[in-house]
Design a protein that fits this description.
The complex is a heterodimer of chains A (about 130) and B (about 400). Chain A is globular and about 40 Å long. The two termini of chain A are about 25 Å apart. Chain A has five helices and three strands; from the N terminus they run H-E-E-E-H-H-H-H. Chain A has one domain: Sufe protein. Chain: A. Chain A has about 130 residues and is an alpha+beta fold. The longest helix of chain A has 19 residues. With about 400 residues, chain B is α/β, with parallel strands linked by helices. In chain B, helix 12 packs parallel to helix 15. Chain B is globular. In chain B, about 50% of the residues are buried. Classes of the chains: A alpha+beta (about 130), B alpha/beta (about 400). Chains A and B meet through helix 1 of A and helix 13 of B. The structure holds pyridoxal-5'-phosphate. The site of pyridoxal-5'-phosphate has 13 residues of chain B, from helix 4.
Chain lengths: ~130, ~400
């Protein structure tokens, strides 16, 4: 547990740095995790070269879902849209620095799923985006 | 009085450690109960000694299998005081039982504009089948409101009865709030306006004495796995007259009397509703489960859980910030769904799991109820005849640990 609830995760959960919404934004997408009701929305602004200049997330959920969103949104600043599209499950787990069981994995990956669905301009966030 | 130490020795899983040195504290019986060795042995004996298909052979094993299966049905009928064993239809679970009524009784009896009364505290399994039917048949769904305290608003119910509903379907015990609803009163009022009643007994049948004749229930649905039995077996109780008049649900073997290439005639009750090879070992396991519950005594179990929930609420209410949903102890079964300001239900459950304490986190298949209370999720601790006060104390220690980590 002291592993799972690393200081980093608790800290980002209690003191998030990238919470909020952007209006206008170039990409806005939101979705739920139907198993537990976690909800995440992401807003992203891009410059003329499709580089992320600003991003924020909002929503509610457990410490893992919120901390991973905060870390992920921080990470994509300065990345290109293509780099965002290429992000994987491993990138998020590296950011969190922990191993997760299957249920909590869904919590951790919700923000990536939402972000990638938005980046690809899809109508729906599907699990194969984060497999 | 109930001898908990003796009872615990019957449940092999309760001896296990979740991790080395961390014994299991199982507080998730509302999701599914643990199984005593008597149930495991009944199923094991069936497979070892007399496994055969039922109603289809005249060899010794087939006769033994049929006799065991039908004996289970009779004991389950006695357990809920059904007038006849043929009023017990074996299904997979509560969900299938309710769907059976929606498809068979519902399609034969409901027309555009008819009203169905449900409640705001229903499990999805007593909502979605009616939503499907309502969309198909253009029915109107109405809901008995849940008060802030977690009780049904019975005055509002009486007003809804002015709409002359055809069906009133409600849970006898909420799996989130623990509320025990006044089923006999709800049924009697429904009958006064000519409505048929369906009782979701998934939580009540395992935890309190249920007598279908005293209640006057038309249909009662429940699941074996929540009452010490195996998964894969459930029951639909229906009054003979209603079952007789209903068209079959699934078609196939066993549910027929005669089949020709283009037609069939249906079998008698209960077989009319049991198409195909049923869950034979599981039905026998459920028979052993009701024997176990009857030997302990449903009244003793109810009493034990009543004292347990009073203690649980007392301990939880002393923890700052913990909010328990549902009514006071005298109106509820042994279920405590709660939130904490510091931590999400998932995190509560995760920290508790590290201490061996198993609770569920989420919306517990009752999203509309959670929406009503304005919360996405709760952590839920639920108790059964094998839980102890020491386990409640472990839960409370775990909650303080959550406060320590997230506080
Ligand atoms: C009140 C209630 N109704 C229905 C169900 C559905 O039971 P099953 O999943 O066994 O069909 C449950 C189980 O969670 C329940 O608690």
């Amino acid at each position: 547990m002291d592993d799972l609830y690393r200081e980093l995760i608790i800290d980002r959960y209690k003191n998030p740095q990238f919470r909020g919404q952007l209006d206008p934004a170039d990409i806005t997408f939101e979705d739920d995790n139907p198993y537990c009701g976690d909800h995440i929305r992401v807003d992203v602004r891009l410059d003329e070269n499709n580089v992320v200049t600003e991003a924020r997330y909002s929503g509610e959920g457990c410490s893992i879902s919120q901390a991973s969103a905060d870390l992920l949104i921080e990470y994509i600043h300065g990345k290109t849209l293509d780099e965002v599209k290429a992000l994987t499950k491993e990138d998020v787990l590296d950011l969190l620095g922990i191993q997760l069981g299957p249920v909590r994995l869904k919590c951790a990956l919700l923000s990536l799923k939402v972000l990638k669905a938005g980046a690809y301009g899809l109508g729906e966030a599907t699990d194969d985006l984060v497999e | 009085m109930l001898d908990v130490e003796k009872i615990r020795r019957d449940f092999p899983v309760l001896n296990r450690e979740v991790r080395p040195g961390v014994p299991l504290v199982y507080l998730d019986s509302t999701a599914t109960s643990q199984k005593p060795r008597q149930v495991l042995e009944a199923m094991d004996n069936f497979y070892r000694a007399s496994n055969a298909n039922i109603h289809r052979g005249i060899h010794t094993l087939a006769e033994e299998a049929t006799a065991s299966y039908e004996s289970a049905r009779r004991r389950i009928a006695a357990f809920i005081n059904a007038a006849h064993a043929h009023e017990i239809i074996f299904t997979r679970n509560t969900t299938e039982s309710i769907n059976l009524v929606a498809y068979s009784w519902g399609r034969a009896n409901l027309q555009a504009g008819d009203v169905i009364v449900l409640t705001e505290m229903e499990h999805h399994s007593n909502l979605v089948p009616w939503q499907i039917l309502a969309a198909e048949r253009d029915l109107r769904l109405e809901f008995i409101p849940v008060t802030e305290e977690g009780l049904l608003d019975l005055e509002a119910y009486h007003r809804l009865l002015d709409l002359r509903p055809k069906l009133v379907a409600f849970t006898q015990m909420s799996n989130v709030l623990g509320t025990i609803n006044p089923a006999a009163e709800i049924i009697a009022a429904a009958h006064q306006v000519g409505a048929v009643t369906l009782v979701d007994g998934a939580q009540s049948v395992p935890h309190i004495p249920v007598d279908v004749q005293a209640l006057g229930a038309d249909f009662l649905a429940f699941s074996g796995h929540k009452m010490l039995g195996p998964s894969g077996i459930g029951v639909l109780y229906g009054r003979t007259e209603l079952l007789e008049a209903m068209p079959p649900f699934l078609g196939g073997g066993d549910m027929i009397k005669r089949v020709e290439l283009r037609s069939f005639t249906t079998n008698a009750l209960p077989y009319k509703f049991e198409a195909g090879t049923p869950a034979i070992a599981e039905a026998i396991g459920l028979g052993a489960a009701v024997d176990y519950l009857s030997a302990v005594g449903m009244q003793a179990i109810e009493q034990y859980e009543r004292e347990m929930i009073a203690y649980v609420l007392e301990r939880l209410e002393e923890i700052p910030g913990v909010r328990v949903f549902g009514p006071a102890a005298e109106h509820k079964g042994a279920v405590a769904s709660f939130t904490m300001p510091e931590a999400h239900a998932h995190d509560i459950s995760q920290v508790l799991d590290e201490l061996g304490v198993a609770v569920r986190a989420g919306h517990h298949c009752a999203m509309p109820l959670h929406t009503k209370f304005g919360i996405p999720a709760t952590a839920r601790a639920s108790f059964y005849l094998y839980n102890t006060r020491q386990e409640v104390d472990r839960l409370v220690e775990g909650i303080y640990r959550v406060k320590h980590i997230f506080g």
